[in-house]
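User: quick one, sequence for these tokens?
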């Protein structure tokens, strides 16, 4: 995929990042992929767990030099990013994909229209219902991302178990999974750039930012969530297409929509 110049190699000889205008704590560069070492580091992460305030203190200055913040879970049962089977060589460019085309393909991909599936899709049917309208922006997306990151870092949640602040060379937050070759949704799509095209669309319509990654888990902040039932249902259809496993404990797309009205955080998990 197309990328910006990668500032991370400079941290090899300048681990504090002073030459980039940064003051980084001790950390490590990750270049491990499923095919062996990548020619350049894919990400940097701090050695110590993140705490409230770290996202703003480190993420803001880093973004000015092309490094975007994300929390990575080093306490995941699969280990940290060096064990996540990253596969950047298999990733295309998110801008080459249309978000609605991707979602429609996912939605209509199951040829068996049995009663159980139709019940799950309610209030919609087997035909793709179209994109949800944009939500009203009520908070700056960057501020919302920092607030969600602080909540994930305060030790009050079961996941992420051990979040560490990471920095990734990426053009926009939605591209972070593609930039590192993240393979979390591999059983749903083996090219995460297609999912990043949807994340880009959600950036534009809902002010989302990618805040946390685990082995197969993704959390985004939401600055413009839906406020009406109808808009939440339309968005729930997108979530089902994007990550069907999210509805594992919901009766239907319509029931899942109840969780989305006004929600500042969306979480996804792929089996």
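Assistant:
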């Amino acid at each position: 995929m197309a990328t910006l110049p990668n500032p991370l190699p400079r941290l090899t000889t300048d681990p504090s990042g002073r030459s980039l205008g940064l003051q980084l704590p001790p950390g490590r560069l990750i270049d491990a992929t499923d095919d062996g070492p990548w020619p350049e580091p894919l990400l940097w992460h701090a050695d110590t767990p993140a705490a409230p305030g770290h996202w703003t203190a480190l993420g803001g200055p880093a973004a000015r030099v092309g490094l975007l913040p994300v929390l990575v879970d080093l306490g995941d049962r699969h280990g940290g990013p060096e064990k996540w089977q990253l596969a950047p060589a298999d990733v295309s460019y998110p801008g080459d994909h249309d978000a609605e085309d991707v979602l429609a393909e996912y939605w209509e991909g199951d040829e068996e229209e049995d009663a159980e599936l139709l019940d799950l899709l309610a209030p919609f049917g087997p035909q793709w219902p179209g994109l949800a309208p944009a939500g009203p922006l009520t908070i700056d997306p960057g501020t919302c991302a920092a607030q969600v990151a602080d909540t994930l870092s305060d030790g009050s949640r079961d996941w992420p178990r051990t979040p560490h602040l990471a920095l990734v060379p990426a053009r926009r937050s939605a591209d972070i999974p593609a930039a590192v070759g993240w393979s979390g949704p591999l059983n749903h799509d083996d090219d995460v750039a297609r999912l990043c095209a949807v994340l880009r669309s959600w950036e534009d319509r809902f002010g989302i930012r990618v805040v946390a990654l685990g082995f197969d888990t993704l959390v985004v902040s939401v600055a413009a969530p839906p406020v009406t039932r109808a808009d939440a249902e339309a968005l729930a259809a997108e979530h089902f297409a994007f990550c069907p496993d999210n509805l594992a404990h919901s009766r239907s797309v319509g029931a899942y929509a109840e969780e989305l009205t006004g929600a500042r955080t969306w979480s996804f998990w792929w089996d």
